[in-house]
Design a protein that fits this description.
The structure holds three protein chains of three kinds. Helix content of chain A is 24%, strand content 30%. By secondary structure, chain A is α/β, with parallel strands linked by helices. In chain A, helix 6 runs parallel beside helix 7 (219-231). The N and C termini of chain A lie far apart (41 Å). Chain B has helices spanning 8-21, 96-109, 116-123, 172-180, 195-201, 210-216, 221-224, 235-238, 285-304, 314-318, 325-338, and strands at residues 2-7, 23-29, 35-39, 65-74, 77-82, 89-94, 125-130, 156-161, 164-169, 186-187, 246-253, 257-264. Chain B has two domains: 2-62 and 84-201, no CATH class; 210-245 and 269-338, no CATH class. By secondary structure, chain C is an alpha/beta fold. Chain C has a domain at 180-303. Chain C contains ten helices and eight strands. In chain C, a hairpin with a 6-residue loop joins strand 1 and strand 2. In chain C, helix 6 crosses helix 8. Classes of the chains: A alpha/beta, B alpha+beta, C alpha/beta. At the A-B interface, strand 13 of A face strand 4, strand 5, helix 3, strand 11 and strand 12 of B. The structure holds flavin-adenine dinucleotide (FAD), iron/sulfur cluster (4 copies) and FE2/S2 (inorganic) cluster. One iron/sulfur cluster binds at residues 204-210, 265-268, 270, 272 of chain C.
């Protein structure tokens, strides 16, 4: 036993945390680098894909790769502390050793988005997967291939806004890129918009013409955003979202992430609203 | 395909030699009368006629608990040791339903991400099938288009005939075994095969309309009539030869060294889909019971084009509250015809 | 029983009757949940009604209205236990008592009947039953085909009920249980004992049917469902399985009513009852208590403090 030299998809690649960024009280971003430079080189993720992060002795969790593939040499993950693994990860600092395997799942279909305008609607930590696509679209030469970019993002409070450097500083600087930020409850320190994401979306009222809408956030937000988008004239095929189901293997074996006949880990996490409506209402 | 014959005496010799030269796994009865597949040292213990074992031979490809790898954080960094090898082994006496179930599991563990643990064991195992001369009353394999003498999935298929067994050699692996023990096999005679008759006694349920019904209806009033008595235990999924769900977890003593394991899990357990933060997309027994039957009768077919149930009758026999998939099938047939029970 | 159920539902005294219905084939009955008076005809009662239905009362804990449940003598002790633990409210349950002359063990009946048959009528005959089917009469004695647990039954009639369905059983209750099953194991040498239990526990699937069917297991969050508790992991192997069984046995100590349900449901034939009965026997020896659930107001051995506690193991 133990005598096999095969490609074992369950074996994580050793990686080291290089930097930790405090995003909010319970969200931290982790920049990681594989210990083996060849692995780093050959790890080719697409925007929207996920990885399994391991802390040996604790376990694994599915986390979206929030960094764009255009950013070479590191992988970035933004993690909300909710349970065992995520809490253990929050206790780690630069230099700590972890394991990463992936990339898994499908990706945002940016091929079909070329030449179109893009509307991103995110809530809380839900911006993490969107961010890989936003940065991908805005990066260098890619920017020319896509039309106008609108980003509507909200969180419960100022303190709960993730990626403040991007939403407040970096992204608004790009051409033809509008960022709208809102928080749920009024706050002395906040000059911007106050209100829930779905209603802000209806206020901003982006036109559905020649546009894809991509949304991710807490289930309740997604639900109302989808309704609002439909109301504003977006067709189901124009609306793209990601699904969350409990995961373990990430590779279609352990059976727990199924929604109907689909495994979220293999066939998702990215679905168009028309695909979603074909699935049983299990989420 | 070569058609051979092996007498009862020669079969005993074959088993003895296989047990000596390779690892032999075969159905045996323990002192409490429970029939299970297990490693055997001599042919005397092996059952040549039995009704389905309490547990299928699945665990010899997909053990209930399996170590995936070891890890250690040391001076030189982190080291992982893969545990996915397998020894050569012969699985003897596998009934047709269990053969079919292995074929149903194969595509789960193959595909874009190959599961080396399963695949290694599969490749290193030869399977000698055994036709059922006395199917149990719970068996309903005929429902799924095969019968108690169907050899598909085996390397050699034995069917009782005259004073021994007809041995159909179906694959190269089978051929290899026959070649190594040539002296024990003879040319097949023309005695009738006994399992030909048992084919008629096995129940064949009507599946007409069920897949279509489930394709079109996730919500069915019918599930309300089934779920309430379910105990939410893992019996039906743990005795099932086609269930493949598992959980992954780490165990470490002292913090530095440890191992990652997987263990069977069941969609009938509350925690199966319980997510961090307490949200559960399948909150009650109703959704869980529905998921199991949907998987058996629809999802597995959708994904792999293969039946998710092979009619072995194990869950029928073992469910403590008599949730009987045979009745579910006939009820769903009724619902598809009449819109209700 | 059917009439009682129909009346209870019609008069609105209860909105649910939990009882036994026809199962698939002669060997099985199945729990049924009757909500309409017109469905009361689905109820059956025969010597293959092995399940303890009391566990289902826990599902009704937070529901509106009153539920009726059919109980045999052994099951009825579980009702008392749940009331003592305040898991259920006596006012919210209506207990239909079933007289019992012993339950047949399906495994011991299996070979002798055509499993496709259905029981038309059951006749008590001598020390057993005649099962009348369309194909004829099958006769069984309790000695030959009865459930193990019934040979030590101390309550052939329920210890608590609101109404009895039928005349009380006159099968004599066993007054002084000799715990022969336990003693047989205690007589083994240490090596024999450990080989015996190792063989049993190594078969365990950790399917948790024993726990899920057990009326003493009413915790909302069970330790065995958690990962990384440090006590017992989710691995299924001899040492973890042994830990599981010992923890469970101690956890139900003083609350196990000896209904035998865990042993009945176990798919791999682990003699769980004898494990729990060892503890029951010791509790009886040490504290001179009755089987839990025998009386509605009985105190739990391990849920009380007494100054004359022998404290042998502390
Ligand atoms: C496609 C996808 C992308 C995700 N992206 C992110 C992200 O970018 N950032 C982030 O913070 N979180 C993300 N999550 C959620 C994240 O996977 C869970 O919060 C995390 O697994 C919880 O692990 P835990 O050990 O801390 O929690 P525990 O409650 O201790 O969970 C134990 C185990 O159950 C599984 N599990 C529990 N909850 C979930 C869940 N919601 N989703 C999947 N598996 C779960 C995991 O295997 C986990 O290790 C994503 C989930 C999915 C499905
Ligand atoms: S169907 Fe039966 S065996 Fe399966 S979980 Fe429910 S009670 Fe257990
Ligand atoms: S669902 Fe039941 S009958 Fe079908 S293969 Fe599984 S255990 Fe056998
Ligand atoms: S989802 Fe349920 S029925 Fe399907 S393989 Fe997994 S445990 Fe078995
Ligand atoms: S019912 Fe039997 S197999 Fe299942 S967990 Fe209990 S002892 Fe183990
Ligand atoms: S996470 Fe294992 S099948 Fe999807």
């Amino acid at each position: 036993m133990g005598n096999c030299k095969c490609d074992n998809p369950y074996l994580p690649y050793p990686a080291t945390i290089k930097e930790v960024i405090d995003e909010t009280v319970d969200v931290k971003s982790f920049q990681m680098v594989f210990d083996d430079p060849e692995v780093m080189e050959s790890f080719k993720q697409q925007p929207g894909q996920v990885a399994q992060i391991s802390i040996f002795g604790v376990g694994e969790a599915t986390i979206s790769i929030t960094s764009s593939p255009t950013r070479k040499g590191i992988l970035e993950f933004s993690v909300k502390k909710v349970g065992q693994l995520t809490a253990a990860l929050h206790d780690l600092g630069p230099g700590s050793r972890v394991g990463v395997r992936g990339p898994y799942g499908n990706h945002f279909p940016y091929e079909i988005m070329k030449g179109r305008d893009l509307l991103f609607v995110g809530g809380g930590i839900g911006l993490a997967p969107l961010r890989s696509l936003i940065d991908f679209v805005l990066a260098g030469e890619n920017r020319k291939e896509f039309g106008k970019v609108e980003i509507i993002y909200g969180a419960r409070s100022v303190d709960d806004l993730c990626f403040k450097y991007d939403i407040l500083d970096n992204w608004p600087k790009y051409d033809n890129t509008d960022v709208y930020v809102t928080i749920d409850r009024a706050d002395m320190a906040w000059q911007g918009h106050v209100g829930f994401v779905p209603s802000y979306l209806e206020e901003v009222k982006p036109s559905p013409l020649n546009k894809y809408a991509i949304t991710c956030g807490p289930p309740i937000m997604i639900k109302f955003v989808l309704q609002a988008l439909n109301k504003m004239g977006f067709q189901d095929g124009q609306i793209i979202t990601t699904l969350e189901m409990k995961m373990k293997c990430g590779i279609g074996k352990c059976g727990r992430c199924n929604i109907g006949s689909k495994f979220v880990c293999l066939d998702g996490p990215v679905f168009t609203l028309s695909q979603l409506k074909e699935l049983p209402p299990e989420f | 395909m070569e058609k051979l014959f092996i007498s009862r005496d020669s079969l005993k010799k074959l088993l003895d030699r296989l047990a000596r030269n390779l690892n032999l796994v075969a159905p045996v009865k323990d002192p409490e009368g429970i029939i299970m597949f297990g490693p055997v040292a001599d042919a005397g213990q092996v059952l040549l006629e039995y009704q389905n074992s309490t547990l299928p031979p699945k665990s010899f490809f997909f053990p209930q608990t399996e170590r995936l790898f070891k890890f250690s954080y040391g001076q030189e960094g982190m080291a992982l040791e893969d545990m996915c090898g397998s020894d050569k082994r012969v699985l003897f006496g596998v009934h047709p339903c269990d053969l079919k179930s292995i074929l149903s599991l194969d595509p789960v563990f193959a595909g874009a991400y190959k599961d080396p643990y399963y695949i290694n064991k599969r490749e290193n195992s030869a399977i000698i099938g055994l036709a059922c001369s006395n199917p149990s009353p719970g068996c309903f394999c005929a429902t799924f288009g095969f019968g108690p003498d169907d050899g598909e999935g085996s390397d050699i298929m034995l069917t009782p005939s005259g004073k021994g067994f007809d041995a159909d050699v179906l694959t190269d692996k089978g051929q290899e075994i026959v070649a190594s023990y040539k002296d024990l096999f003879e040319k097949a005679g023309d005695s009738p095969r006994i399992a030909g008759e048992t084919r008629l006694t096995v129940k064949k349920l009507d599946l007409t309309g069920i897949k279509e019904l489930l394709d079109g209806n996730f919500e069915l009033e019918y599930w309300n009539q089934v779920f309430e008595k379910c105990l939410g235990c893992g019996i039906c999924t743990y005795v099932c030869p086609t269930c493949h769900c598992f959980d992954i977890y780490d165990s470490s003593k002292g913090g530095c060294d440890g191992e990652r394991y997987r263990s069977w899990d069941s969609c009938m357990f509350t925690h199966f889909t319980m997510m961090a933060g307490g949200h559960n997309p399948r909150p009650s027994k109703k959704e869980r019971v529905r998921n199991r039957f949907m998987h058996k009768l629809k999802y597995h077919i959708d994904r792999y084009g293969l039946a998710g149930c092979v009619g072995c009758g194990r869950c029928v026999k073992s469910c403590p509250v008599n949730i009987d998939i045979r009745r579910i099938i006939s009820d769903l047939g009724e619902v598809s015809r009449n819109g209700q029970l | 029983m059917r009439e009682i159920a129909r009346d209870l539902l019609e008069s609105g005294q209860v909105n649910l009757v939990i009882g036994y219905g026809r199962g698939t084939g002669i060997l099985r009955t199945t729990p049924v949940f009757i909500r309409k008076p017109s469905d009361a005809g689905q109820l059956v009662y025969n010597p293959l009604c092995g399940n303890n239905l009391v566990k289902y009362l826990l599902d009704q804990r937070n529901k509106e209205g009153r539920a009726a449940v059919c109980v045999k003598g052994c099951d009825s002790r579980a009702v008392n236990r749940l009331i003592q633990d305040r898991q259920i409210d006596r006012e919210k349950v209506y207990i239909i008592g079933l007289p019992c002359g012993g339950i047949l063990d399906p495994d011991r009946v299996e070979g002798a009947v055509d499993p496709g048959e259905e029981i038309k009528e059951t006749v008590i005959s001598g020390e057993g039953y005649d099962l009348i089917t369309a194909a004829g009469k099958y006769s069984f004695t309790m000695a030959g085909a009865g459930s193990e647990k019934c040979s030590t039954c101390q309550n052939h009639n329920p210890v608590v009920y609101d109404v009895m369905a039928g005349d009380p059983s006159d099968t004599p209750d066993i007054k002084d249980d000799g715990f022969d099953d336990v003693r047989k194991i205690e007589e083994m040498t240490v090596e024999q004992k450990s080989a015996y239990w190792d063989r049993q526990f190594s078969r365990c699937l950790r399917c948790y049917a024993c726990r899920n069917s057990c009326t003493a297991c009413s915790c909302r969050e069970c330790v065995f469902d958690q990962v990384n508790t440090g006590w017992v992991s989710r691995s299924s192997n001899l040492s973890e399985n042994t830990a599981f069984h010992l923890i469970r046995a101690f956890h139900v100590a003083g609350r196990c009513v000896d209904c035998g349900e865990c042993e009945r449901v176990c798919p791999v034939g682990i003699p769980l009852r004898v494990l729990n009965r060892k503890i029951l026997m010791d509790l009886k020896d040490l504290f001179n208590t009755a089987t839990p659930g025998l009386t509605p107001d009985g105190e739990r051995v391990l849920g009380q403090f007494s100054a004359d506690d022998p404290e042998e193991f502390m």
